[in-house]
């Protein structure tokens, strides 16, 4: 009996000592940021497609392109270059779709804010004003707000539904709007209509200015694409000649083609980086 009491006393002393070295307060879980590829798919409106499916499409397109070109030309080096270019095409298409959708959404966000402002002035609550955007909002945002309405009806929690809406839209302007509405919902206030009016004017002016700048620098992007595509178009024309195929179907020819491909990719990315406007980042994810 004395041994049991001694063990219990020792365990109690150990637990008291251990409590001074552990932090009993729970640590808030940090939200994991989505990967860059997943965020690109969300910006392109393809959130239902996972990154693995896109990688698989790139691999399948690359293999198919390489086999077709190698079979048509009879040169493995041509097939290798075609496989690399073909594998890049699905990713390039998704990025192009994401940029186009971002530019389109930039034009419709002022209208979304105007619809919210009108609904709130008409006496609707904030959740009701957001839900009605699935019917009266601009066409590009209606599916996202329809899913928001379904999330809100299922859970009854506005904050959780707003978080899902932000992840679904994957747009920095949407992040700003959602966070402004979230703060207004939490702390209250009577100036929501004035806030939305100011935000609408700012978004409209920003979209107008950015559109003018993008129109002026579009020649740089077109020049970059032409400069990269021209050598490979010439190479395809040369591939119709058996002598050119024999010249490149060797170790030295493979080095030349792969080196040219690397230089083309680096030059294209550099020209786009120098001529592109800075993209707004999602700092309020």
TrEMBL record:
Q: Name a Pfam family for this protein.
A: T2SSF
Q: Where is the protein found, in the record's own terms?
A: Cell membrane
InterPro entries for the chain: T2SS_GspF_dom
Q: What is the protein's membrane topology class? A: Multi-pass membrane protein
Residues annotated as transmembrane: 6-24, 45-69, 75-94, 226-245, 251-272
GO CC aspect terms: plasma membrane
PANTHER family, alphabetized: INTEGRAL MEMBRANE PROTEIN-RELATED (PTHR35007), PILUS ASSEMBLY PROTEIN (PTHR35007:SF1)
Protein name, entry field: Type II secretion system protein F
């Amino acid at each position: 009996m004395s041994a049991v009491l001694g063990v219990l006393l020792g365990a109690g002393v150990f637990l008291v000592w251990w409590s001074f070295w552990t932090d009993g307060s729970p640590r808030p879980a940090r939200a994991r940021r989505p990967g860059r590829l997943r965020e690109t798919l969300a910006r392109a409106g393809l959130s239902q497609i996972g990154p693995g499916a896109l990688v698989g499409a790139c691999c399948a397109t690359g293999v198919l392109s390489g086999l077709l070109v190698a079979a048509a030309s009879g040169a493995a080096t041509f097939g290798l270059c075609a496989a690399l270019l073909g594998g890049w095409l699905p990713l390039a298409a998704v990025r192009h779709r994401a940029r186009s959708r971002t530019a389109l959404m930039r034009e419709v966000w002022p209208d979304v804010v105007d619809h919210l402002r009108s609904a709130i002035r008409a006496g609707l609550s904030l959740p009701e004003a957001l839900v009605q955007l699935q019917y009266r909002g601009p066409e590009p945002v209606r599916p996202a707000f329809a899913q928001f309405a379904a999330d809100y009806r299922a859970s009854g929690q506005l904050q959780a539904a707003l978080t899902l809406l932000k992840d679904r839209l994957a747009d920095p302007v949407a992040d700003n709007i959602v966070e402004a509405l979230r703060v207004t919902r939490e702390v209250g206030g009577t100036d929501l209509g004035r806030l939305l009016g100011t935000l609408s004017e700012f978004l409209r002016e920003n979209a107008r200015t950015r559109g003018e700048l993008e129109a002026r620098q579009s020649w740089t992007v077109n020049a970059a694409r032409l400069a990269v595509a021209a050598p490979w178009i010439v190479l395809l024309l040369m591939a119709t000649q058996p002598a050119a195929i024999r010249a490149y179907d060797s170790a030295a020819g493979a080095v030349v083609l792969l080196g040219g491909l690397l230089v083309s990719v680096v030059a294209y990315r550099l020209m786009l980086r120098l001529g592109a406007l800075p993209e707004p980042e999602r700092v309020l994810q």
